[in-house]
Amino acid sequence: MFTLITMVIGRAGLSGVFLLMLVENLLPFIPSELILPLAGYEAAQGRFHPVLAVLAGGLGSSLGGAAWYAVGRRIGGERLERFARRHGRWLGLSPAEVRRATVWFNRRGALAVCIGRMLPGVRAVICIPAGVAKMPLPSFLLWSSLGAFAWSALLVAAGMMLGAHYGQIDRWMNPLVDALIVVAVLLYGVRVITYKPRP
After folding, report:
1. Which of 28, 42, 127, 148 has the smallest C-beta neighbourhood within 10 Å, fewest atoms?
2. pTM
């Protein structure tokens, strides 16, 4: 994965950063924790301006998040409730939990989106409930972009500070991402086993 990311950014520059971050939001197995520090390293070497690296990463991330928002908006709360009624065990949600989540999101959605866009494993997923809850698009784009650009700036800066040692990110981040995936799968398994439907 690290070799592929290095090749794309090496050949396409800022366009590669933008494209990788867009794809990373649509296919989360491409981690931004590898893409953006490499962009920071390239910026530190003078290959492109660090502000442009942050903009490319943040814009790609924001557009990817908007695609998931559109999916959530298309599904809508009522359709998701019906789906939960039939397949709640596998979805991990009951209709009542869908309703509660929508109410909660309507109250605290802006903060949830902004912070969620900076959390590994949550960054893309948080956009779906925003769409399901019909969060106003301008508000979603504002808070999603704030989180996405903040995350982009943080990781680009980390890559610049690490300099030639940016490759170390791959060594400690890959096991962390793998561990998070294992924990997520285990939690899902427990949820499926212990699921009790609520109307």
Report:
1. 28
2. 0.75
